[in-house]
């Protein structure tokens, strides 16, 4: 509702709510996720005109998100709760990896039945957000000034446990079929964590019109989070990775020195209005906040039962967690001495736009960004290596880990980097002679030594740093690198409308137009994996990268294969039958890391043309009938998924499927007809 309180004051308030329940079968048709949600949004705002050149706006808001997910069995004849692994708890999860160790599996990510877990744990997250901000605007001469501040109170509650537990099988699907798990993880949902945090921010900005042809944008923003606080004192951290006990307290300390300068320029160098030059730069922060960072914190963490703890693997399919209550816990360690810096990105760009003709313009721009203090995940609790004379690390086949008091220790750090540079070109033709068309081309390159803190990437890149002692070993193409991207779209109105005379002619032949979009992009990089822990470092998150064979390219996707054990020579590369040459990679010396870089092989690219034929028929004044025939992937072009990236079996022989593509991505040709009455 909107209220005009006076000639100088306006007030409005909004309330929105959204509730619902939906059921999504999980792949495999064994279980389904029942998603429930209740969302509430309230906004109040008041603006006051102080004078002819000054205005103040104050705003308050409250958001509540209350989603929860319950896993259900699809077949009503099967009582999944009665099949629970742990007495008193429902059916849990099952994962299997293609390697011989946990977590990362052979492709850098654990495989699950039909691509996901049979059943995911029940999840319930509640977030309340209280916000208030004020902005004051003042125009004085050539300056348009704006000042303001913002405050947010964040309340985040979610359960700590994973009811039901999860069995993990290694050795591929065979291990699952044999019923020989290597690990069982279980956390009773004994408490719900209640996180509280505040955000403070203020800013000042000046849009300075230096001359009629030159405008400067100057600004400074300062915002920071308070250190997260768990109300029940149930959070903790390993201050040192060798600590035998978790130190109770905040998971990490937040920095407050997060100042963000901004600069921009807009210039008409000729004064004709046909050429413009724009440049800008600014510093931005991606704050360490949310479940990704909080969920690892806790003085009670997942108990892990594995063959390394007892003489035999855990029993299956039922287990009593009290039998391994004294087993080492899996914990997190946050940063160096519990201090995390805020991930920081510096963006900068330069753009030149020129009107070539009355209906044709060209825009060319350089865009760059540099990130530092970026997040990365480290598997801390590995075997202790020795150092070879050439500086390489050598891990023993068996031996102590860094901290035997714990099982897995996941370290969260903010010392990673990324760099992006790109050239963007846009050609646009506005409507003339019935034709509108634009083309966008980007040529860019993204580099990084870590891409995100979270699950393993679908391209086989595990979420953890390969060599925890040498982050530079992972510096290479980013998972999100895409060298070339081209998009052309246009619309053409059939030209004969003006020559149509009678009503029948106009009804049949008038109002026709065509729309089309062409998209093409080069492939993204992916990892090559050995398929097993040949380095013997006991990393449960990922398998190794092999060595690059002498004389081979680290992106062997062109030409023909040289041939090697299990791979016939002369096969054409860069095809679905054999995308890359498996012979380019060899196993490293056992106990050492392979020398192959991260993300060196480029995946297949993508092409697609979507076409629409439209007809607009005027029935009478104020009433139109629109017909649409839409064809997606007009030429039914096949776009391929990633090839099999695991090159070796656990016995050191090459896998027969390495480099083979077995599936496509995107849609096959689809035709859709539509009819719409507009009145």
Task: Explain what this protein looks like in three dimensions.
The structure is a single chain. The chain has a domain at 503-678. 28% of the residues are buried. By secondary structure, it is an all-beta fold. It has 3 helices and 40 strands. The strands form 8 sheets. The protein has a 23-stranded mixed sheet that branches. A 5-stranded mixed sheet has the order 6-5-10-11-20. Strands 15-16 form a two-stranded antiparallel sheet. The protein starts with a strand and ends with a strand.
Task: State the main characteristics.
mainly beta; 679 residues; five-stranded mixed sheet; 2% helix
Number of strands: 40
- Mean pLDDT across residues: 85
Strand content: over 45%
The secondary-structure class comes to mainly beta
* Termini Cα gap: 28 Å
Shape: globular
User: How big is the Rg?
Assistant: 30 Å
* Biggest sheet architecture: 23 strands, mixed
pLDDT under 50 segments (min length 5)?
Answer: 98-118, 306-312
Give the oligomeric state: single chain
Counting DSSP H or I runs of 4 or more residues, the number of helices is 3
Give the helix level as a range of percent. Answer: under 10%
Short structural summary:
It is built from three helices and 40 strands. It is an all-beta fold and 679 residues long.
Detail the topology: elements first, then pairings.
Blueprint: E1 2-4, E2 9-25, E3 31-51, E4 54-73, E5 93-96, E6 111-112, E7 123-124, E8 126-140, E9 143-159, E10 162-169, H1 173-177, E11 183-187, E12 192-211, E13 214-225, E14 229-230, E15 236-237, E16 247-248, E17 253-254, E18 259-267, E19 275-285, H2 291-294, E20 303-306, E21 329-334, E22 339-340, E23 344-357, E24 360-379, E25 386-387, E26 393-394, E27 406-432, E28 435-448, E29 476-477, E30 484-493, H3 503-509, E31 512-521, E32 525-526, E33 547-548, E34 585-586, E35 601-602, E36 606-620, E37 623-632, E38 639-640, E39 664-665, E40 670-678
Parallel strand pairs: 5-10, 17-22, 21-27
Antiparallel strand pairs: 1-2, 2-3, 3-4, 4-7, 4-8, 5-6, 8-9, 9-12, 10-11, 11-20, 12-13, 12-14, 13-18, 15-16, 18-19, 19-23, 23-24, 24-27, 25-26, 27-28, 28-29, 28-30, 30-31, 31-36, 32-35, 33-34, 36-37, 37-40, 38-39
